[in-house]
Design a protein that fits this description.
Helix content of chain B: 55-70%
CATH architecture of chain B: Orthogonal Bundle
CATH topology of chain B: Arc Repressor Mutant, subunit A
Shape of chain A: elongated
Largest sheet of chain A: none
Order of helices and strands of chain A: HHHHHHH
Order of helices and strands of chain B: HEHHEEH
Oligomer: heterodimer
Radius of gyration of chain B: 17 Å
Largest sheet of chain B: 3 strands, antiparallel
Number of domains of chain B: 1
Number of helices of chain A: 7
Distance between the termini of chain B: 25 Å
CATH class of chain B: Mainly Alpha
Strand content of chain A: under 5%
Chain lengths: 206, 106
Amino acid sequence: MTKIEFLLALSERLSGLPKEEKLERLNFYSEMIEDRIEEGLSEEEAVAAVGTLDELSECEAPEHTEIIPEENPEEKTEQDAPKKEKKLWLTVLIACSFPIWLPVLIAVLAVALSVYVVLWALIISLWAVFGAAAVTAITVIIIGIVLAAAGRGVAGAATVGIGIFAVGLSLLFFVGCRAATKGTAFLTTAAAKGVKRIFNKKEEEI
Amino acid sequence: MDVQLKRGLLDVCVLAAIKNGESYGYKIIKDLKPCIELSESTLYTVLKRLEAAELLTVRTAEHGGRLRKYYRITEAGIARIGEFKKEWQEIMSIYRFVTKEDDVND
């Protein structure tokens, strides 16, 4: 190991110490290595003679542990100042980028609104399908009854059967429609609450 | 050996190594070698302690194109060596007393 390598490794090991003390130690060991080289040792031998990294970084360490002073209140206010400045700059930035973010905001709102409209249109169409199915089922039953009354008993019975089957399907469809409506309503209120929260937060921040 | 006692002995050894004129780290280690094997890290700690106690002063001087620290003993440092000699007389008499008791018992 060369002197530089050794000192770099030692510097890393001593990173827990205050900067000044670390530098002082490194200078001390550097001087020791140099003195040995001056006496005729090779660089490698001189480094080895000074001691291992473990020895130098751990030996007597407790004696040099320093209590880190408590953060004083002045520093805290200093930290607050940049925060305020940051907020100011953020406001300026928001104001200046107004021509950019306004169209973007409008687009986002438009997309959200269209998604909302499409969702409810879907629900309405589902109900329409249900309505149509129910009306058709009842109509088919009536036609069946009329057919039976007209003397075509078999055809009438079959038609009534189909009608009843259709009513069953309609009822199932009704359950589905109701669930879809409830789900969409829930989503809408949740989204509304979310938007409200975002705006409240922003107001608090500003 | 008791840590406190060893610490005191090391302090006096290093002070003795510089009592006849200022010296530098590596020279102190070499001069002490016949008496005690001192590691670099121990020497560093001892020197810091003695400096803090104002038993020695440090100056940095140029040597062969680099810097080297030289340590010079203070009046207080010389006084500390004197104290040690006196203390050691007491310790020796205690030692003689303790070993004499042993002789009687044996």
